[in-house]
Automatic annotation (TrEMBL):
This is FecR family protein. Residues 111-206 form the FecR protein domain. Residues 251-319 form the Protein FecR C-terminal domain. Keywords: Membrane, Transmembrane, Transmembrane helix. It comes from the Bacteria. The chain crosses the membrane at residues 76-95. It comes from Sphingobacterium tabacisoli.
Length: 321
């Protein structure tokens, strides 16, 4: 759908000329792109860029504000109409997996994304809560969620606290796995760069199935690691309290490689790890810190494992001997 056609739809909505069906679809689209929790912005920089464009558009185009029950929606759509006339709104609407609202098919999936170093809690329509670590991307279909509670964890780490609903099982699709529960709490880490998925159960029961229909049932205190390239599962016991330690400011490593450590530091704290004349191929890191006060405190503990030193320059940390 081009901007001219969409502008006509917006104006029809403002003038109360659309059918009830099309008005409802505009409302649904509005709720998706303007929700305080679900954002169309790919990251903070994108958000600031679009905000500047919107401010410039408001200055040049006085929006139409109608005193109707849907005032907030109408004001937003009025601004959109002005921006489309000004030709500066494409950056907002043609974002990844988005676009202008379709009036021939269902609304595009809602997306929740976090920047590096950001931790965010998100509440789903069924009141289930999700904590997302940095560099995490999650999608769900808001329209069908009540009948099919399904989310897609495209990358990153998330801790789920699922509301019990025996009639509507909750499922997560991630990294080639299908995870299904009724009501429980569990952590999922989809490390896309390494093609690995980790599942840690805190309470309840979780069923995990891959594309080959290999299936495992995990209960509280059970964990699973899945290698998507090899199609291999590893199951083991783990303290259930560790599953969401990161959501409470803690940090835990279980024999991870330097690459895995680097990914964790970037997503959790927004810092990049580098080395200076070090062969990290055989390095492994195990660490348990229930509360991390500062990144420097954490790095001191990490460096003590291999008797290393570190220096920090803004968001870049270099390890050396």
């Amino acid at each position: 759908m081009n901007s001219e056609k969409f502008n006509k739809i917006v104006q029809g909505y403002l003038n109360n000329e659309l059918s009830q069906e099309h008005s409802d679809k505009v409302d649904s689209w509005y709720e998706t792109v303007s929700s305080e929790e679900v954002t169309p912005f790919t990251n903070g920089q994108h958000r600031d860029h679009i905000q500047a464009q919107i401010q410039a558009g408001i200055t040049a185009q006085q929006p139409i504000v109608l005193s109707l029950p849907r005032k907030r929606k109408i004001r937003w759509l009025s601004i959109v109409a002005g921006l489309l006339f000004a030709g500066i709104a494409s950056g907002l609407f043609f974002y990844k997996n988005g676009g202008l609202p379709s009036f021939t098919s269902s609304t595009a999936m809602s997306q929740v994304m976090t920047d590096a170093g950001e931790i965010r809690e998100f509440i789903l329509p069924d009141s289930s809560s999700i904590f997302l670590s940095g560099n995490t991307k999650l999608r769900f279909d808001r329209e069908s969620f009540k009948s099919e509670r399904k989310v897609y964890l495209d990358q990153g780490e998330a801790f789920f606290n699922v509301q019990h609903d025996a009639q509507h099982p909750f499922s997560v699709a991630t990294g080639g796995l299908h995870i299904q529960v009724l009501g429980t709490s569990f952590n999922v880490h989809n490390a896309t760069s390494r093609h690995q998925v980790a599942v840690d159960v805190q309470t309840g029961r979780v069923s995990v199935t891959d594309k080959e229909q290999q299936s495992y049932v995990l209960t509280a205190g059970k964990s699973l690691r899945y290698d998507a390239q090899e199609g291999l599962f590893t199951c083991f016991d783990r303290n259930a309290e560790y599953a969401n330690m990161w959501t409470q400011g803690g940090f835990i490593l279980d024999g991870v490689t330097f690459e895995e450590l680097s990914d964790r530091m970037l997503s959790r704290y927004g810092v990049t790890l580098k080395t200076e004349n070090l062969d990290t191929h055989n390095f492994r890191y195990s660490l348990l810190m229930p509360q991390v006060e500062t990144v420097e405190q954490l790095m001191t503990m990490i460096c003590s494992i291999h008797q290393l030193k570190f220096r920090r320059d803004k968001n870049e940390i270099t390890l050396y001997r």
